[in-house]
Amino acid sequence: MLREDYEIVIGLEVHAELSTKTKIFCSCPTEFGAAPNTHTCPVCMAMPGALPVLNEKVVEYAVKAGLATNCSITKESKNDRKNYFYPDLPKSYQISQFDKPLCTNGSIDIEEEGKAKTIGITRIHIEEDAGKLNHNEFGSGSLVDLNRAGVPLIEIVSEPDMRSSKDAENYLRKIKSILEYIEVSDCKMQEGSLRADVNVSVRKKGAKEFGTRTEMKNMNSFRSIVRAIDYEAERQIEVIENGGKIEQETLRWDDVSGKTFSMRDKEDAQDYRYFPEPDLVAIRLSDEYIENIRKNLPELPESRKKRYLEEYKLTEKESKMLTASKYMSNLFEESLKICGNAKAVANWLLSDVSRILNEKEIEPDQIPFTAEQLAKMIMLIEKGTISSAIGKKVLEELFENPKDPEKIIEEKGWIQISDEGAIKEVVMKILGNNPQSIADFKAGKDRALGFLVGQAMKETKGKANPKMLNDMFLEELKK
Amino acid sequence: MNITELTVHELQEKLQSKEITIEQITKAYVENIEKYEKDVQAFITPLKENALKQAEEIKKKVENGEITNPLAGIPIGIKDNICTKGIKTTCASKMLENFVAPYNATVMEKIYGENMINLGKLNMDEFAMGASTEYSYFQTTRNPWNLNTVPGGSSGGSAAAVAANMVPWALGSDTGGSIRQPASFCGVVGLKPTYGLVSRYGLVAFASSLDQIGPITKDVKDAAILLNVIAGHDEKDTTSVNKEKVDYTKVLKNDVKGLKIGIPKEYFGEGINSEVKQSLEKAINIYKELGATVEEFSLNIADYALATYYIIACAEASSNLGRFDGIRYGYRTANYSDLKELFRNSRSEGFGAEVKRRIILGTYVLSSGYYDAYYKKAQQVRTLVKKEFDKAFEKYDVLLTPTSPTVAFEIGTRSNNPLEMYLADICTVSVNIAGLPGISIPCGVDSKGMPIGMQLIGNKFAEETILNAAYTYEQKCRFRDVFKSDNVSPKGHM
Question: Does A282 contact B at CB distance below 8 Å?
């Protein structure tokens, strides 16, 4: 198989739940996690005779998203009905937008091995989410929960501009970051408030025509998306190499087996019978309205990055990494406000915090501690109350059981020993136990000092003030 | 004095002069329901006891000054596709046989807000699809003027109940003529307001861009009074228009001098019954005598209106009626082994033949590959129809046509011939397509004594113009007085 002869072509349809307080067509709350069917009313339950009323905030949020992704805003737009039967779709149609989406022709830049790459955005439209089916939760059969029915979504459709699973990941991370920055979506992938339909096709390098694509729906983790794209591309190449043809179809990605499966038989090829929603009037936006939103757009990652470079003298890499996630970036800024040490906060976030996030496979928005707690920990180190070694342990503890770092070190007995007499006692004990190291040091081996300090730290379970230890060892050794 | 012969404004006068009481009114109507309902079959859910109880309560509250609404204690009948909290709303369908809405339609909030009394839910064609009320799942309503004929439809129950004096007035809904045509068949007044004048919130949708709720009454003044109650912007219906309130009773001037009436000749051509035509010609002469100017003209697009209407109405219906899927409410089949069968069998068993016919037609015209040829084309024609009417209203204040090409036809003669049934709407559908107001008022009887209706069409939100024109004619011809005589009246045939 000639894997390297092929090019992968990827397009993403990203669905983001908007963080409006109420649903798109009624005043039910959008809050996640309520008891089934408690956030419902005649409108979102599709009672006969009930009518939708468009939530203006939804339009505003979608326009924000469009402006933040360099889209043109459609001044005269409308809603359409997408008809299909399913128990989680109470009206038997989804109110969406078909041929006049609110935003069109945008793009965002992603980075690929240090090089900038532009991904086109075909369109962004508004639509309503469906309900949820709970299978077998209460014995046999399925139960319908309509709390999510009518939660507002934007669908962001990309051009087929991505060429690797890494591209797709970078693109999705960038979209997530932008939506977080402009505060239109929580983007909580674990709660399904950000999910993507992934379209994949392959073609021989240099080919002009796209290959036949397959679609994997409702993917909600970066890891699955990367794995699914890699698997699906391999599968398609194998089919083609064996003389087969790719069927245009919807596939289901199974995370456990790491494979894709066909979802629908062809008999069910959907005809959604889109037509203009007669229950809603056209959406007309004035230039002033659009300009007003543009003027009030919050700071986007790019300009924040620039600010970090200039104001805080952080490196290009640090600034980029911190601003990639709004949660991370906000945590940085809030901690900085309290402790005043940009470099230290950046270091902690980019080294130890990021390492733990990776280990735990969680996103920055799931960090359990507050900026104040992080800042306090940094200040405790600066004051010499704890060593940075203890700081690492405090951080681990902040992830497990977040509370005031002072309480943590008090409870754990981690307060740094800075008492001269106590330090001297340890130094003398270590020197007594290691005559060889003394000899080594005197013979000019500076490394021996490091060893002795290490032993002393071990003896004090990391609590001794390292600066004082160092000074006192030197003093004694030079005697 | 027979209370149930009186119009609502007459009832109001008698209440004010204390000649009658609120309780007497409801009691008189309940007695009439008991007398005539077995023949007419207008009600799906009569609320006789409840109405009597309410009448007693409201009477007390009026007496001790707690409520002062001028319509307090006036009964009303409601077409059974308007949602009433706690009372069944069936749409005359097996699908909703036991459906009780958890909320009131906006018009019901307004009716109840006036302390009016709901006398019952009235029969109709299933989901308002039909022109004879024969497509009701429950019963065929009969025309009080001749029990062997249909009352028209789809608001046949509403029109028949008003004609038989079982309710003083009623609410109907009109998608292609469903208020005006039965009003014409039953010799009463029916008004279809401008699209957007009355909130549709709580009206079970048939075709969202065409549906409007409106009054069916004994005379024009009553229509104006009831329109005052139900008209107005509703934030729950974004297609309802926010405009200044008009008191429609104040526009009844009994004067049409200088009024410019246009007669679209297409509505007097082939297929129009000659007696209907003669009756309309007489009416036109009366308008001339009253000082209006009358001119014939050509409404070019009239020939395409019916086809356009059936494409748009069915397309919207096919989507609107999707929610009746057996999942959350309404009829569910007992016979299914998977989801697809649950959907298919619930809908196959729950809907009647005419509803299925329109869902299939509507699904077809929206299908990929057919959309452009049917739905899109129909929308283009719709724009042309609107333009054609705009042009007409540059020249005329009111357009005058028959409401229906014929008088009420015999039960069973058209129910198996959908195309012929659809022709009953030919004079009324274009008004819905263009979103205009239209009123049907009685303008005579044929040789067999069956009522003939005249339709007056106005420009958008020009209800005042057609109400005044209708009122002025009515004052001159006094058809209610004619109908009260024994040889020409609903009662004479029962």
Answer: no
Determine whether B240 is an active site residue. Answer: no
For B328, name the nearest residue in chain A, comparing CA atoms only: A90
Fold classification of B3-255+456-493 is Amidase signature (AS) enzymes (3.90.1300)
Phi and psi of A80, rounded to 5°?
-130, 160
For chain A, the average pLDDT equals 92
B293–chain A Cβ distance below 8 A for any pair:
no
Q: Side chain identity at B186, as an amino acid letter?
A: C
**Residue B368 contacts A, CB cutoff 8 Å:** yes
Query: How far away is chain A from the Cα of B5, in angstroms, using its nearest Cα?
Result: 34
**Quick check: is B489 catalytic?**
no
CA end-to-end distance (rounded Å), chain A: 72
B391 is annotated as an active-site residue: no
pTM equals 0.89
Q: Which letter does DSSP use for residue B408 in this model?
A: P
Q: Does A273 touch chain B (CB under 8 A)?
A: yes
Show me where the domains of chain B are located: 3-255+456-493
Per-residue confidence at A2, pLDDT binned at 50, 70, 90?
Answer: low
Vertex B335: Cα angle to B330 and B336 (nearest 5): 95
Q: How buried is residue A427: exposed, middle or buried, by Cβ count under 10 Å (0-12/13-18/19+)?
A: buried
Identify the pLDDT of residue A303.
Answer: 87
Considering only CB atoms, B368 lies closest to which of A47, A93, A271, namely: A271
Domains and CATH numbers, chain A: 3-289 (no CATH), 301-412 (no CATH), 420-477 (1.10.10.410)
> Is B315 in Cβ contact with A275 (below 8 Å)?
yes
For chain A, the 3-state helix, strand and coil shares in percent, each to the nearest 5, are: 45, 20, 35
Residue A404 confidence class, pLDDT cut points 50, 70, 90: very high
CB contact under 8 A, B322 and A85: yes
The 10s digit of each residue's pLDDT in B449-485 is 999 999 999 999 999 999 999 999 999 998 877 776 5
As for the ipTM of the complex, it is: 0.95
